[in-house]
Design brief:
CATH class of the largest domain in chain B: Alpha Beta
Largest sheet of chain A: 5 strands, antiparallel
CATH class of chain A: Alpha Beta
Number of helices of chain A: 1
Number of domains of chain A: 1
Helix content of chain B: 40-55%
CATH architecture of chain A: 2-Layer Sandwich
CATH topology of chain A: Beta-Lactamase
Structural class of chain B: alpha/beta
Oligomer: heterodimer
Structural class of chain A: alpha+beta
Distance between the termini of chain B: 49 Å
Radius of gyration of chain A: 17 Å
CATH architecture of the largest domain in chain B: 3-Layer(aba) Sandwich
Strand content of chain B: 15-25%
Order of helices and strands of chain B: EHEHEHEHEHHEEEEHEHHHEEHEEEH
Strand order of the largest sheet of chain B: 2-1-3-4-5
CATH topology of the largest domain in chain B: Rossmann fold
CATH superfamily of chain A: Dynein light chain 2a, cytoplasmic
Strand content of chain A: 25-35%
Distance between the termini of chain A: 34 Å
Helix content of chain A: 10-25%
Mean pLDDT of chain A: 87
Low-confidence stretches of chain A: none
Number of domains of chain B: 3
Largest sheet of chain B: 5 strands, parallel
CATH superfamily of the largest domain in chain B: Response regulator
Number of strands of chain B: 15
Largest interface: A-B, 44 and 68 residues
Number of helices of chain B: 12
Strand order of the largest sheet of chain A: 2-1-5-4-3
Mean pLDDT of chain B: 82
Amino acid sequence: MRFFKRRNTAKLPKLPSGAFALDRDGKVVVSTLPQSFPEAQMRDIGERVLAFFRGAQLAQMPQQELNVYYPSLKLTARSLRGGALIFLSPQTLPKN
Amino acid sequence: MGSTVATERSKILLVDDDQDFLEVYWEVLKTLPSGPAIHTASTGARALALLESEPFDLLIVDLNMPKMDGLQVIAIARRKYPQLKIVVWTCIADEQFRARAYGMGVEQYWQKPGSDQERQHLLDSVESMLQRDVKGGFRGVQSKSLVDLIQLECLSQNSTTLKISNGPYSGKIWIQSGELIDAEAEDQKGESAFRKILGWKTGSFEMMSGDEERPRAIFSSYQALLLEIAQEMDEGAAAHGDGLRMSLDAPSPLMGLTRFNGVQFVLSVGPEPRCEMKSWGLETPDHVSEWAHQSLKAFASLGDKLQVGQLQQITGMSPVNHVALAECRKGELCVGFRSTLRSDEVRETMRNILAKWST
């Protein structure tokens, strides 16, 4: 009987930690994220970030920095001449 | 492998790509005192099909599976079946996955047992979760305060973990054989966490099984602590009586929120379908409301995509003013702050505002 734990061979993808920069058209210009993190996903994040900064401008409330908090990820973005510099920081639970 | 089926029995769905593991734990779980019906699935897709076809009480899922991994299964199951209890059983000890799983709303995160003792703890925990539904007891004890609940548990010499939620906050109180042994709330532990939790006026609670291995961090008796905290709260209420009355007498609940430190404006949009908008201190609420709504929607769906849990809060910082956006069951809230506040102050104040607003 195998009651006890075994090693899993498959690899579950981890959340990326790093930063990337987008130009004003949403194109990724530089990234420190691992290559395994798809560029399409970076663009997807970037679109939302750029929409936030542009929407804030239209609402007459321009913002320079954005922080988005999830239980296991913090996203920080800085507006950069129409583009953005975006940081992804995975979060862990506080230790007991 | 088949499944044991009977009416009135709890139903567990066990999901793992390791067939040996499924077979072993199908046998083991069957021996639980409540005699649950155990169903198994070796892929995420099969698990979702089973969930679609019949109701389950508990989903036990591995994380590491080919094609559709456990996090994907959890994300879909949590959205489609909010009442379903979910437990992760995995070999992965990585804190990041633990945080993601809890962020996505699982009840417990267990590493696959490495000893007889661990296996027994795990089975006790599963049984306790099933009993919560079977025994049920009286739910929604609305007229009782948290103090009453704690006294009740301590007087009954129970061992239990009370999980308490108050808007965006949550905390836990551990009681062992009728003794208050520890508490945890946000980043605080022990007595300070207990005081913080007792300060919450409303919320919901859940009783979980006791944790025998929890080290004791509170050494005062529960009676002494409760008495001390009650006195402090009475004195605090007397000292702030005027302020509290002003807040309660404010023309609208929204104006009550403007009493928080640094708040410049507040805008709330009620839940669909009415989407009733109220604002204070804003010249163009329509534009701001639209932008806040789109931003919350965009980042909530991003959270689903990345499987990082439910969006908690968005903050924007600028030299002119800061802004924080969040969503709760009462709708969407957008709050403007003075630019002198730091990022962490904006976040913490917004959490307090949300807690007040949602209660």
